[in-house]
């Protein structure tokens, strides 16, 4: 009978769930940093490309899907969420890494942050350049993800994102630019840094997540339709009405400034709310919105909800998860303050 070596005994067990994206991308030449195909390289090849991972953890991979993340569906989210929960429940798994396209990485990270009942580290990671490009960033991002996933310090901090040497909260982080390797930022700053495989922490998330969340992937059978309508000064009510007609239970108003609403569509949004559609005011300002109740619009009077600092795409994730529990606008608003 084999006895494990001392290193094997000490190392954490980390599972890498691969979903595709640029971190699994391949281009025609090393000069192709922006023109390439995402979701081409399989998980075994990704792991083999970073032999140093074996010094951090006992790593194994699973190919959950192989897609560019702009095409992630609600069913994909549920499938991934359920697999993460199974792994988190198993006693021989200490941490989970998810490789992911960066376009919707912030949505998946926030979703998992809301619904995974575990304090084991869950790290979502991607890259801005494919592995075939000069100065590819995926190797180090993946190394950092496995380092954080195998560290005890990362437990109980919610779902995390390791890009560009930073450890970001999956709730706060957003893709702010699509051509630089420093693409991911949070309005409230990173939680820490990961340098040469070691994590350095500076702050903790204040919002409810994972163990402290009232949502549980195991109780979510399906996600309701929540859609986003982009707003601007001369906006018409066509999109809002069409989304409601096609079955949206809530519409995220991707508003200007403080989630402000053009007077051209206020009557339509009032009418939709009367018909039972939840109206959630968010903001599409570039560096992060901060939408307050009854500022710009009388939310109490209209029975609308505000998304506070959640951008429209994150507001959509929370609204879907929240609507699996309640359709009461006051409860929804409470959740938008707490998560
Ligand atoms: N940098 C990236 O990962 C973007 C590639 C692709 N659009 C995706 O999100 O999967």
From TrEMBL:
Start and end residues of each Asparaginase/glutaminase C-terminal domain = 226-336
UniProt keyword terms in alphabetical order = Hydrolase, Signal
Residue ranges of every copy of the L-asparaginase N-terminal domain listed in the record: 13-201
Q: Where is the active site?
A: 22, 102
Which SUPFAM superfamilies does the entry mention? Glutaminase/Asparaginase
**Which CDD domains does the record cross-reference, listed alphabetically?**
L-asparaginase_like
User: Which InterPro entries does this entry report, sorted A to Z?
Assistant: AsnASE_II, Asp/glu_Ase-like_sf, Asparaginase/glutaminase-like, Asparaginase/glutaminase_AS1, Asparaginase/glutaminase_AS2, Asparaginase_C, L-asparaginase_C, L-asparaginase_N
Q: Which family does it belong to?
A: Belongs to the asparaginase 1 family.
**Protein name, please?**
Asparaginase
Organism equals Pseudomonas violetae
Its organism's taxonomic lineage begins at: Bacteria, Pseudomonadati, Pseudomonadota, Gammaproteobacteria, Pseudomonadales
């Amino acid at each position: 009978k084999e006895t494990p070596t001392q290193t094997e005994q000490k190392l954490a067990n980390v599972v890498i769930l691969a979903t595709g994206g640029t971190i699994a991308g391949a281009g025609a030449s090393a000069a192709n940093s922006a023109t390439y195909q995402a979701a081409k390289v399989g998980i075994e090849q990704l792991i083999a490309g970073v032999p140093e991972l074996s010094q951090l953890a006992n790593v194994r991979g699973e190919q959950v899907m192989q897609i560019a993340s702009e095409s992630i569906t609600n069913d994909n989210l549920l499938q991934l969420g359920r697999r993460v929960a199974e792994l988190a429940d198993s006693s021989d798994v200490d941490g989970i890494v998810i490789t992911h396209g960066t376009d919707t990485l912030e949505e998946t990270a926030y979703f998992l942050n809301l619904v995974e009942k575990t304090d084991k580290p869950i790290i979502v990671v991607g890259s801005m350049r494919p592995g075939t490009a000069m100065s590819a960033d995926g190797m180090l991002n993946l190394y950092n993800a496995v380092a954080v996933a195998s560290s005890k310090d990362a437990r109980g901090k919610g779902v995390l994102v390791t890009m560009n040497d930073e450890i970001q909260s999956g709730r706060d982080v957003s893709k702010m630019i699509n051509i630089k390797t420093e693409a991911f930022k949070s309005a409230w700053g990173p939680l820490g840094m990961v340098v040469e495989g070691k994590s350095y922490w500076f702050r903790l998330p204040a919002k409810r997540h994972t163990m402290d969340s009232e949502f549980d992937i195991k109780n979510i059978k399906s996600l309701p339709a929540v859609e986003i309508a982009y707003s601007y000064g001369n906006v018409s009510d066509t999109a809002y009405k069409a989304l409601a007609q096609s079955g949206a239970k809530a519409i995220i108003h991707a508003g200007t400034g403080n989630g402000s609403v053009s007077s051209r569509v206020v009557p339509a949004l009032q009418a939709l709310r009367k018909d039972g559609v939840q109206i959630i005011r968010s903001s599409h300002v570039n560096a992060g919105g901060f939408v307050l109740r009854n500022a710009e619009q009388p939310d109490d009077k209209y029975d609308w909800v505000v998304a506070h600092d959640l951008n429209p795409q994150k507001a959509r994730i929370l609204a879907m998860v929240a609507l699996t529990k309640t359709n009461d606008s006051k409860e929804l608003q409470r959740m938008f303050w707490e998560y």
